[in-house]
Design a protein that fits this description.
Oligomer: single chain
Order of helices and strands: HHHHHHHH
Number of strands: 0
Mean pLDDT: 78
Radius of gyration: 43 Å
Shape: rod-shaped
Strand content: under 5%
Structural class: mainly alpha
Length: 216
Amino acid sequence: MKNLLFWMAGGALPALVVAVVLAIVLVRKERAKCAALKQELAKAEHLIRKKSDAENRYRNRIHSLLKDLRDSRTEAENARAGYLYMLRNGYRRMGTLYEMRQFAGTMKESGAVLCQRVDDYLKEINGDPDGFKTLVKSLDESLGGAVSDLKEDIPDLGEEDIRLFCYLVVGFDAPLISSLMGIDNMNTVYSRRNRLQGKIKRLHADKARRYLALVA
């Protein structure tokens, strides 16, 4: 009986040793796998942090560029508003001269001379074709080709519509426009202005804003 137990113990011991060794090997392999996975995870987390940092930098850069763009746009709009104000003041003075010329026309000889001199000065606004071309050219140069662009964007506008647009741009009021365009009823001026603005509003929003801002 003792021999049998000794034989069984002696036969089981090598198997137990083998099992232990195999277990140790498997544990080490699993540990190695875990270590490799931890390294891969650390790399992935590092890449994610780098990506997040890069996204934050780009986002901040984009926000900065957008702010600069808004500031530049505001400065440009303020500059244009200032220029338009000065331009309108200048043409309002011309409008006053036109009204003086109309009054002087009722006078006799001295009035006729004054009318002629004022007429020469007012060719840009009094309907003279060559003079009006000068006005259109001046506005185009000052406002980025606004009048020519309007003609192209709305091809069915007539010459009277273009004249009305230019007069509105330089800030003439309805009574003066009525006198310049030979319109007896000022309501007709308002009606033509509303019709012109209606055509402009049918354009793409960006273009409509551009032209409407000039005649506001």
